[in-house]
User: Fold Retrovirus-related Pol polyprotein from transposon TNT 1-94 from Trifolium medium.
Amino acid sequence: RYLKFTLNHGLMLKKPIHLQLQAYSDADWGGNIDDKTSTSAFIIYLGGNPISWLSKRQKTVARSSTEAEYRSVANTAAEIMWLLNLLSELGLKSQLPSLFCDNIGTTYLCANPVFHSRMKHIALDYHFVRQLVQMGKLRVAHISTRDQLADILTKPLSRARFSLLRDKIGVTNGDPILRGHNR
Assistant:
């Protein structure tokens, strides 16, 4: 029923004012009712336009919400690095990318130079992200759950929350534009 009434919805891309990658990374800890795996998701913007997004079930069960979120942050960071390389190949220079996460523990781990033994089972992800932050190639910042745009890709939401996030990520109704009513 949703698809029937949103056939003309799509992304309206705007001319970017600046070339900066901004990413929103999220995970739902143990959200799969069958095997308790988590879903990772991200949305990456370039100059305010969404250019890359993903929603994917994690392969292993996370022992904490911080672990599930950290795995998602690591996947998002890898995509950001790929996009930075692509921009470089195209002769474009991006400002320092920002990655927003709503889990405060994950945000602290990204900047913490001390390796915690309880994180050794995700050590590669941990060192990958932390190294990018320390080298000044990535900025990881906390964002409130209310402002977490990737939330729309991790779990079912109320109609009101879904509509709000759908509008915030840049999905618009194309009917007025297709009829020549674009302002």
Notes: The radius of gyration is 18 Å. The domain at 18-174 is CATH 3.30.420.10 (Nucleotidyltransferase; domain 5).
